[in-house]
Amino acid sequence: MSINFSVLPDVTPDENAITILNVRAYVIKSNETETNTGGSADYHSQVDGHWIFGTDKWPIANPMSLYEKYKSRRSTWGIDAIGSVIAEIELTNGIKGVGISIGGQPACFIIENHFSRFLEGQDPLNVEYLWDLMWRSSINYGRKGLTIQAISAVDLALWDCAGKLRNEPVYKLLGGKTKNSLPCYATCYDPLAAKNLGFKGAKFPLPYGPADGDVGMKRNIQRIKEIREAVGDDFPLMIDCYMSLTVGYTLELLELIKPYNIKWLEEHLPPDQYDGYAQVKKQNPSKTLLTCGEHEYTRWGFKLLLDKNCVDLLQPDVTWCGGITEARRIVALASAYDVSIIPHGSSIYSYHLQYAFPNLTMGEFIFLSPNGDSISPSFGQLFNDEPLPIDGWIHLDPYKPGFGVTLNRKNLYRPYPRDNQSKSI
């Protein structure tokens, strides 16, 4: 029996409330600009030879690795095809909030031509209400992937506005800090470089998958052995499989890596293979932890992972899974199962979430220098003041409101302006 007795009236801003004046969505001006300014994480254009696309010596196993034409470089099949979406929300008092996700021009179209109707004129502090409107209105074409990434960008911009309105960092709006600084591990090509820079562990990509047969498996173990010998016995090492393996291959790999003290094996199967993840966890022959969640979306996807006992650790990306509003629900859900969360690297957006909750114990920092052995900003040149780890620790400034960063507007382009608004900044 339903407990709803009436349709809810419209939510309207309180009298004299500061409201949302305008919603804008940008991309980086050109592929050349994105390449030259360092891209953003691993879904963007990078210079030729960048480690994150795979190298001649060590490719990166991925879902397209079984096709020879697309095997050698992840860029050949378009890991960099979509690029960033930058959502900007301007309030009636002039405050601007910024959120970033993957989605490029398609996400810009959704934000400008669909979600803007629910946002403009509303109180930006009503984040639960605004998230629900975007989610419910896009169920018919969304629920996962690009649509949720568009919602994420808008949601993050709303939280940035909220922090600036309250003149406080976002982590204080979420309940305050549970740690004074955040330890980080590095995702990189050279774990020894990460160790030398003070990081608390390092993750590297698995080179070969099932299509490479026994020879590929031997080369995987060779790579793992070389890295372990380079960093020593006690430095924590993790392996990213990037959705490329099968159940049987994963179980064999887990058996073979037992001598090398691998902390966790990440995203070994495609994200929708929940039963496969559960089977691997049940039959895991090693002490290596099993993780995934980078390419999962919303609380419902993560509830499946938890209910089916698929993983030891969850890794939502705050810029993809639904923004801060949805991420904090996922965090609460995981805490009820006593499962820790280490978000996929999303820089400032995950740092604030991790400061605020005790079951988020460590951050991920991706080395985006071409050689994969040094520190550079996660978002390239999109921000002027993105915090970077020092000796493997992130420190957030308690006096910087919102997410504490300033958008660099130099290389942005607005593909779908409304009401004769300009495409320029």
From TrEMBL:
GO terms for molecular function: hydro-lyase activity; magnesium ion binding. SUPFAM superfamilies: Enolase C-terminal domain-like, Enolase N-terminal domain-like. Transmembrane segments: none annotated. Residues 189-285 form the Mandelate racemase/muconate lactonizing enzyme C-terminal domain. One of its GO terms (biological process) is carbohydrate catabolic process. This is Mandelate racemase/muconate lactonizing enzyme C-terminal domain-containing protein. PANTHER family: ENOLASE SUPERFAMILY, MANDELATE RACEMASE, MITOCHONDRIAL ENOLASE SUPERFAMILY MEMBER 1. Keywords: Magnesium, Metal-binding. Its cofactor is Mg(2+). It comes from Rotaria magnacalcarata. The lineage of its organism: Eukaryota, Metazoa, Spiralia, Gnathifera, Rotifera. Pfam families: MR_MLE_C, MR_MLE_N. It comes from the Eukaryota.
